[in-house]
């Protein structure tokens, strides 16, 4: 509750009234609300002595609202600061629109991603006709989420006279609104909703009970016919709408039985629909055969024999089809296994060549006492490089040149001050690339994990004069070794005005107020496996649609980081900038199939094309 209220009071739209209806709560909810109300005069609390139910609670806050526009807010959801300020112009731009909504990021109660709901392509409701929109709603699409959008209050108050008090009433209510007004949509994630699996299970259990579907159908018909916001001529669609609603509800009611049908169909490698049709045909043919036998048109023996022969033939075809598909899949598995064996053999040859190139690797452990410290260090460095290459080969990482991935980036000018001359990196261009990429994509809002002296922080702000930079680092008291140097390179400079320092352990950092807001995220914090995993997960929560994430120190020295990305890239491939320690993710880009830009023709390019297996010599070990 506190987190939800925090995101509401932080809305950047100034003229806001927050009404809380406490439906006779028995936990600490009221105390939390009262604490917020004491610090914010915009908050008004209505206390009820008895629990009147969800729909009555909806009406209470709607009737108490004074503004022209209205939205409902659930206690376990989170709103981005510009939720209202982005939806309101979209609603005002279309006088026929009665509600505006955004894309929704749905999360499980523990914060793990569940899914992302967007209404794009033929699902985009902007300008969509009433009947077509109703059809989409009754097909099962998630338009019921529009109930948490921004409404025109007068229209909503009239529609609330017929709010269905049944299971799935939110979908019926939104169906009513679809026939009453148009929907406006902003394709931007501005709301995070908490998806409760237990609620879904309870919904399916209630749907399976006798009488639920009948009550839903009666309620839906009454809502449409009794609505004062739907023009009478649009109510003529009710018979078709009822049929659609029935077809939507049946799969939900028969959820377990349908799952059983899917399992049986999968065994025969046919679609569930084909299996149901086959069973239906068997039933129809049995009825027809029995009827003809009853009329003495055919003998009962002939009817049974013909029916049995036909279905034995169907069963034989299905069994043979299943056998053929299984045989085909077995051959495919064997071929795939052979490919994997070949790849393993090639990797082993590569490892053997590595050992031959550095023969001391094989005996370094047993003879380290016979070697000088310098030799031991060199051998250890070679060992790290070999291990790094092995992990790289097992990862789904596509190696590219920066100009191939960002055509035209070579024209960007970046100050040389971004280079740290004292760094141990053999190649000091990494930070030049980071700053150039942020500038090239025109990043307005940037986030950095790991501040240290603030060299990259400063140059991100310097190269993007209209941009804001948020940089995260441990609090000074928890990082005394780095504390004297933290942010010294941007302190007292003009760019500091556009830099926000966040002092927090990244594991404790709450991304909720910042989600989906950043064009560019740079991850260069702790390189242990667990912290890289944590920072990566949060980087994806911060990035907005079409944004870019870059990671630093993908190199032999960062064993935990390399191991994490070996696992991570199996499901989500990444780019690696050649001859650097940088990994790149671009939202909306298919890494393995992305068409790269062309490099300018040169002698160096010719040499590399003639030597495609040229091994890079620069690794940060």
From TrEMBL:
Q: Which Gene3D superfamilies match?
A: Spore Coat Polysaccharide Biosynthesis Protein SpsA, Chain A, Vaccinia Virus protein VP39
Instruction: Write out the coiled-coil annotation as residue ranges.
Output: none
- TM region(s), chain numbering: 275-296, 302-324
Q: Does the keyword GTP-binding apply?
A: no
Q: Any idea where the Glycosyltransferase 2-like domain is?
A: 3-107
Note the InterPro entries from the entry: Glyco_trans_2-like (IPR001173), Glycosyltransf_2 (IPR050834), Nucleotide-diphossugar_trans (IPR029044), SAM-dependent_MTases_sf (IPR029063)
Q: Which SUPFAM superfamilies match?
A: Nucleotide-diphospho-sugar transferases, S-adenosyl-L-methionine-dependent methyltransferases
Entry protein name: Glycosyltransferase 2-like domain-containing protein
Which Pfam families does the protein's record reference? Glycos_transf_2, Methyltransf_24
What is the species of this protein? Sulfurimicrobium lacus
- Which key words are in the record? Membrane, Transmembrane, Transmembrane helix
């Amino acid at each position: 509750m506190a987190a939800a209220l925090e995101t509401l009071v932080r809305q950047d739209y100034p003229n806001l009234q927050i009404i809380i209806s406490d439906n006779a709560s028995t936990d600490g909810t009221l105390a939390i609300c009262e604490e917020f109300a004491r610090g914010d005069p915009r908050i008004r609390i209505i206390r009820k002595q008895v629990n009147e139910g969800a729909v009555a609670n909806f009406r209470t806050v709607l009737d108490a609202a004074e503004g022209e526009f209205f939205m409902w807010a659930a206690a376990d959801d989170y709103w981005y600061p510009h939720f209202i300020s982005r939806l309101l112009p979209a609603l005002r731009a279309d006088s026929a629109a009665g509600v505006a909504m955004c894309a929704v990021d749905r999360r499980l109660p523990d914060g793990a991603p569940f899914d992302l709901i967007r209404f794009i392509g033929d699902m985009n409701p902007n300008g969509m006709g009433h009947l077509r929109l109703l059809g989409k709603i009754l097909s099962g699409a998630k338009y019921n989420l529009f109930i948490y959008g921004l409404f025109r209050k007068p229209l909503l108050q009239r529609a609330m006279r017929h709010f269905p008090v049944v299971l799935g009433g939110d979908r019926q209510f939104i169906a009513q609104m679809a026939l009453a007004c148009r929907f406006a949509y902003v394709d931007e994630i501005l709301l995070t909703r908490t998806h409760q699996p237990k609620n879904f299970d309870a919904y399916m259990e209630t749907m399976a009970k006798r009488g639920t579907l009948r009550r839903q159908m009666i309620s839906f018909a009454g809502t449409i016919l009794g609505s004062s916001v739907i023009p009478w001529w649009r109510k003529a669609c009710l018979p078709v709408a009822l049929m659609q609603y029935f077809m939507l509800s049946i799969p939900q009611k028969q959820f377990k039985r349908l799952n059983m049908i899917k399992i049986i169909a999968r065994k025969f490698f046919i679609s569930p629909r084909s299996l149901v049709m086959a069973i239906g045909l068997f039933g129809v043919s049995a009825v027809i055969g029995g009827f003809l036998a009853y009329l003495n048109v055919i003998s009962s023996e002939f009817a049974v024999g013909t029916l049995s022969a036909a279905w034995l033939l169907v069963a034989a075809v299905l069994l043979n089809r299943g056998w053929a598909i299984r045989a085909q899949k077995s051959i495919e598995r064997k071929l795939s296994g052979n490919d994997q064996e070949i790849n393993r053999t090639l990797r082993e040859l590569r490892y053997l060549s590595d050992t031959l190139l550095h023969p001391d690797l094989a005996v370094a452990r047993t003879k380290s006492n016979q070697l000088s410290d310098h030799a031991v260090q060199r051998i250890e460095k070679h060992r790290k490089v070999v291990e790094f290459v092995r992990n790289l080969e097992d990862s789904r990482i596509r190696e590219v040149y920066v100009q191939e991935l960002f055509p035209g980036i070579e024209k960007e000018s970046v100050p040389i001050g971004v280079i740290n001359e004292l760094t141990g990196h053999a190649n000091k261009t990494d930070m030049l690339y980071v700053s150039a990429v942020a500038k090239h994509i025109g990043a307005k809002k940037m986030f950095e994990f790991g501040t240290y002296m603030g060299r990259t922080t400063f140059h991100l702000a310097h190269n993007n004069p209209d941009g804001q930079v948020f940089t995260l680092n441990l609090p000074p008291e928890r990082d005394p070794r780095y504390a004297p140097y933290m942010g010294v390179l941007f302190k007292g400079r003009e760019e500091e005005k556009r830099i926000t320092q966040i002092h927090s352990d990244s594991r404790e950092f709450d991304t909720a107020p910042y989600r989906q807001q950043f064009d560019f995220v740079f991850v260069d914090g702790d390189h242990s496996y667990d912290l890289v995993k944590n920072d990566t997960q949060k980087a994806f929560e911060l990035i907005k649609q079409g944004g870019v994430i870059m990671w630093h120190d993908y190199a032999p020295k960062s064993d935990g980081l390399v191991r994490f990305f070996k696992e991570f890239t199996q499901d989500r491939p990444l780019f690696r900038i050649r001859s650097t320690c940088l990994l790149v993710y671009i939202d909306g880009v298919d890494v393995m199939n992305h068409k790269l830009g062309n490099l300018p023709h040169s002698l160096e390019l010719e040499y590399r094309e003639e030597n495609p297996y040229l091994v890079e010599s620069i690794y940060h070990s």
